[in-house]
């Protein structure tokens, strides 16, 4: 499934649940979709047989979609619990049935992105996994993955769903919105110029024409490269 479909679903959940702050309220979101939650410890007391079935299926969480009940391991670290709860929500909103590796990948992608949307990582200026962990309540493992995925996300054009989620979470007046659009266009032009410069530099070096770099346009491009890396 393409990321765009997952992004659209995340935007829908944020709007339906009125989410504006972080960390997002996972239990409130589940209640909005009429889910009941129960810890594994409590389930073990009430019904040891069902508890055994749930733990055998997953040590993190188990979802009974028909009855809208999610049982989860409350002894896991909080970030892991939050990820597991949103993972189970993904199976519900995407109407997954049966066991399918692709469905698990979709649920993981949904969970990581609904907990820490890439537009929010950018807005808060998170630089590393520690920043993401503290701001969004992800586990360190999920935070490290979010950093890697953010770097890839930042390189591509922002999707419509991402822009709409950005507007939903961080509404701007017309002046600021116009300024950001101009800034992003400028950044895209700079990246394109940098790519062209690197291609030209590679050609000159391969043909032993490095001295040409200090002349005319290429001198300006060389200065442009330095300004981006300072």
Automatic annotation (TrEMBL):
Entry keyword annotation includes Coiled coil: yes
InterPro entries the record matches: IrrE_HExxH
Domain named IrrE N-terminal-like: residues: 60-142
Superkingdom classification of source: Bacteria
Coiled coil: 180-207
Any Pfam family the entry gives: Peptidase_M78
Keyword tags: Coiled coil
Annotated protein name in UniProt: IrrE N-terminal-like domain-containing protein
């Amino acid at each position: 499934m393409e990321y765009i479909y997952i992004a659209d679903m995340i935007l829908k959940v944020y709007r339906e649940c009125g989410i504006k702050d972080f960390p997002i309220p996972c239990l409130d979101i589940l209640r909005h979709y009429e889910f009941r939650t129960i810890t594994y410890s409590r389930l073990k007391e009430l019904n040891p047989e069902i508890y055994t079935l749930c733990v055998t299926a997953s040590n993190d969480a188990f979802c009974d979609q028909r009855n809208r009940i999610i049982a989860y391991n409350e002894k896991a670290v909080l970030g892991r619990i939050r990820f597991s709860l949103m993972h189970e929500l993904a199976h519900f909103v995407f109407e997954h049935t049966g066991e399918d590796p692709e469905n698990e990948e979709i649920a993981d992608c949904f969970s990581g992105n609904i907990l820490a949307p890439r537009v929010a990582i950018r807005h808060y200026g998170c630089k590393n996994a520690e920043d993401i962990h503290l701001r969004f309540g992800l586990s360190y493992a999920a935070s490290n993955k979010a950093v890697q995925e953010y770097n890839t996300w930042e390189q591509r054009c922002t999707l419509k769903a991402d822009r709409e989620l950005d507007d939903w979470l961080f509404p701007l007046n017309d002046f600021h919105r116009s300024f950001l659009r101009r800034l992003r266009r400028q950044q895209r032009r700079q990246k394109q110029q940098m790519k062209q410069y690197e291609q030209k530099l590679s050609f000159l070096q391969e043909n032993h024409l490095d001295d040409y770099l200090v002349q005319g346009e290429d001198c300006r491009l060389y200065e442009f490269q330095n300004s981006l890396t300072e």
